[in-house]
């Protein structure tokens, strides 16, 4: 279900999908995916509202997606043998993410 949350970063109300809820001493924190900005954010529980009927039917501007059969790689450096090889990684390197974003632009 899509809700409306107030994003502190964007300083506006945005449509969002709630990914998870984390209970804290001062209330709940919601991890949300902003469907029109393709961003994740944390929102306090008092900053969430139910989305009014007609606005729920507007298509999202952003979609979660993955590159098909593309896995992250990184440079593995062996200082003992003085070699460097490209190999699989658990996460994408920051430099690779920045390079991909530049290619998209």
Q: Helix count, per DSSP?
A: 2
CATH class of the largest domain: Mainly Beta
Rg, nearest Å: 19 Å
- What is the architecture of the largest domain at the second tier of CATH? Roll
Largest sheet, in brief, is: 5 strands, antiparallel
Low-confidence parts: none
Work out the strand percent.
over 45%
CATH topology of the largest domain: SH3 type barrels
SSE order:
EEEEEHEEH
Cα distance spanning the termini: 31 Å
Helicity, in percent?
10-25%
Number of E-type strands? 7
Total domain units:
2
Sum up the overall morphology in one term. elongated
Mean pLDDT: 86
Structural class: mainly beta
Helix and strand topology:
Elements: E1 2-7, E2 12-24, E3 27-34, E4 39-44, E5 48-50, H1 53-56, E6 73-78, E7 83-88, H2 94-104
Antiparallel strand pairs: 1-2, 1-5, 2-3, 3-4, 6-7
Q: What would you say this structure looks like, in words?
A:
This protein is mainly beta and 105 residues long. It folds into 2 domains: 2-57, Roll (SH3 type barrels), CATH 2.30.30; 73-103, no CATH class. The chain is built from 2 helices and 7 strands, in the order βββββαββα. A hairpin with a 2-residue loop joins strand 2 and strand 3. The mean pLDDT is 86.
List keywords for this structure.
105 residues; single chain; SH3 type barrels; 2 helices; two-stranded antiparallel ribbon; mainly beta; five-stranded antiparallel sheet; 2 domains
Brief sketch in words of this structure:
With 105 residues, this protein is mainly beta.
């Amino acid at each position: 279900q899509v809700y409306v949350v107030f994003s502190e970063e964007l300083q506006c109300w945005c449509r969002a999908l709630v990914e998870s809820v984390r209970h804290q001493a001062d209330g709940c924190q919601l991890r949300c995916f902003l469907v029109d900005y393709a961003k994740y954010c944390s929102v306090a529980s008092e900053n969430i509202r139910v989305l009014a009927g007609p606005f729920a039917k507007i298509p999202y501007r952003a979609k979660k997606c993955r590159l098909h059969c593309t896995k992250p790689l990184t440079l593995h450096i062996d200082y003992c043998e003085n070699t460097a090889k490209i190999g699989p990684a658990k996460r994408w390197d920051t430099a690779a993410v920045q390079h991909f974003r530049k290619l998209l632009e």
